[in-house]
From TrEMBL:
Source species, domain of life: Bacteria
GO BP terms, alphabetized: glutathione metabolic process; hydrogen sulfide metabolic process
Alphabetical list of SMART domains matching this protein: Lactamase_B (SM00849)
Protein name: Metallo-beta-lactamase class B
Amino acid sequence: MALLSMAGASMAMDASWSQPRKPFRIYANTWYVGSEGLSAILITSPQGHILIDGTLTRNAPMIEANIRALGFHLHDIRVILNSHAHHDHAGAIAALARDSGARVVASVEGARELEAGGNDPGDPLYGDVPRYPAVAHVETVRDGGVVRVGPLAVAVHDTPGHTPGNASFTWRSCEGSRCRAMAYVGSLTAIGRPGYRFSAHPQVVASFRHSFRTVAALPCDILLTPHPDAIDFMAKVAARDRGVRPDPLVDADACKRLAASASRAFDAVLAKERAVH
C-alpha cells in the first residue's frame, strides 16, 4: 500500500488532480465524484446528500458536472465536509457551497483553517502550499460528533498531524440488508515546509500518534482516502468492475494496515531528522 506524500504527489501527479473521471458508485449510496487523482465523495439519500471534500479550486465545475451526471441535483446537497484544509482538498468548497447552498462543516481546527483560506501558521506546510478562496461561516463538529442529513449519519474523528484540523469520517452504506462500514481517512503523511522538523514539535508528534491509533480502530469495510492512489483505489475499482471476486474494495483490515504503514513512515521521518541533527 503506497503512501504518497503531498509534496511527491504534487510533482508526480499534478495532471491527474484535474483529470476528469467518470463518476461511479462505490457502494450503495456512496459515490465517487472527484477527479482521477483527488477524491470527492457523495453520500446520498432522498432527504438530501452529504459531500466530502472539494479538490482543487478549478475542479468545482467538474465535480458539479459529475454529480449531475449521476442524476443528482446540486441543491440537494445539504452538507459539505472537509478532511483537511489544503488547497487540493478544500480549494473548491467555497464555490460548491455557493452553488449548492449547502452548509460547510469541519472539525474545530479545520473550520478555522477553511475560514482562513488555508493560511494556518500551525500547519507544517505553512507558507509552502497555495492559498484558496476562504470559506465563510463554517460550522464545527467536535471529535466523535455525528453530522446528520435525513437518514444519513456521518461520524467525525479528529486525526490531526498532517494539518491541525485533519479529520476522518465513518458511516454505513446499505444495499438491501447488506451494510458496509465506510471510512474516509484524512491524510496521515508527515510533510513539512523546508526546514520544518517534526521532532521539534512534540504536540504534533503526539497528534500523529493519536491519529494512527484512531484510524486503526475505525469501523472500516471499505477504505477511502483523499488521494485515491495512496491505497491503489482506482486499480481496485477496475478489478471490481472486471468481475474480480471477492470485491477488492471490501477489506476489514484496510484501516489497520493504513495506520501501521503511516506509523512506520512517520518513524522513518523522525529517524531521518535525528540522523541529520
